[in-house]
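Hi there. Long-time user, first ticket. I'm pasting a complex I've been working with (about 318 residues overall). I'd like to know whether the download I got is complete or cut off, because the file seemed smaller than I expected. Thanks.
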Amino acid sequence: MGRPPCCDKSNVKKGLWTEEEDAKILAYVAIHGVGNWSLIPKKAGLNRCGKSCRLRWTNYLRPDLKHDSFSPQEEELIIECHKIIGSRWSSIARKLPGRTDNDVKNHWNTKLKKKLMKMGIDPVTHKPVSQVLSEFRNISGHGNASFKTEPSNNSILTQSNSAWEMMRNTTTNHESYYNSSMMFTNSASSEFQTTPFHFSSHPNHLLSGTTSSCSSSSSSASITQPNQVPQTPVTNFYWSDFLLSDPVPQVVGSSATSDLTYANNEHHFNNQAEYTSQNIDSKASKTCHSASSFVDEILDKDQEMLSQFPQLLNDFDY
DNA sequence: AAGTCACTCAACCGCAGGACG
DNA sequence: GCGTCCTGCGGTTGAGTGACT
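Hi, the file is complete. Here it is re-exported in full:
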């Protein structure tokens, strides 16, 4: 049976909105306010689905919306928020007054993702692509011929896409992978970490739109070059090493650690976003003591699974 | 000038969760 | 506890447009 449609699809108009339709919604909302969108089309004299009306209002007609392009500061905040909470566009949009989740999502998919990939940063893990590729070779055992090609400057995007696709294909449920990744501390995997990016200490350096910003990075932004072998050799594979290296920008000179509650604690995320924008060292001492044992348990399970199902590693077919 | 391609973004779709009776 | 309705959300689609051949 399934869920009944929200409206008679065959009798409602679809597609782009006309000025006249916009005017009808605006006029109705001005008098009655928003709410009960299923009734609004009828009351406002629109041949549209209520859901469509709500979307048009929230994404375009709302008076508090900005319609200009994203500023570098907004872009940096999106990237930082995405690093922390992933593709929770509505939460990210709440950090950007006048922007909708649809705006943020579109901007990420069309601009920011490509910018990061051009800079050699995997947009999913926010880690250097070379590191992701290097680690992935360890998943597949002793490497695979298709990934042994030497990356050139011209192949950064291709390499990035490869890394991205590998992550997607390897994870049966990408969202669960991502959510679980948010729950980890970096403490257990710090042995294999490269130096994290410091967004806040270098405003806009990520967003200059050129790869030169990457190559000219200072000591505080020591991202691994796309065509460069990671400085820290990866000798073993750990799932935890695929996870975000640090959900918050690391404070130089401190032992800032992450927190287990990022993914599920909006309040905490708000604090972190403010923290990010202000670059203050207020949470450096906030430590989660259960994190290591949690990661250890995951790793133990991982080893257990591999010992029981060794053929899993052989099943990858790239 | 015409055709093709790539990109952007508004809009759609289906699912999940909360409120309510 | 269950069903229905409404709203919010994230992923995806496709029309429009400009760049390129």
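A couple of notes from our side: Residues 143-162, 164-268, 273-295, 310-318 of chain A have pLDDT under 50 and may be disordered. Residues 101-118 of chain A form the longest helix (18 residues).
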